[in-house]
């Protein structure tokens, strides 16, 4: 992993977190216990704080960034899917952000929401808990069932387990 101090801002990474060696973590960043930041992720905390909550996973090629006045907060037990782009937004506990979703400044994704792959959440949009959010621009399609929420929480739990495997058993060969 490449960890950068920027001016007086030093990333704070819990010892139990997994950060892949090709990830870039810069400046005002907090990564909580048992969180995972996978390969080729960029977390650029040069404007405002970026927080990744406990047990959350940020998958390959995700970009996390902020503008002044728009911190980025990822709650606990969140999955951020491959190649997603999160910018100055709030993702509440238990949400799943689909592959290549884009979430812009000031947007708030409620607890246990699923943002579909490729969705575009425009600036300042707020979505209620337990919503299926899809489209461009993104809209609520319906309320998720308890079974659907439990299924994607299992995937999040699996990432906590996988991260510990990668943290302790991954061996670079070349």
Automatic annotation (TrEMBL):
InterPro entries: Hexapep (IPR001451), LbH_gamma_CA-like (IPR047324), Transf_Hexapept/Carb_Anhydrase (IPR050484), Trimer_LpxA-like_sf (IPR011004). GO terms for molecular function: transferase activity. It comes from the Bacteria. Keywords: Transferase. Pfam families: Hexapep. This is Carbonic anhydrases/acetyltransferases isoleucine patch superfamily.
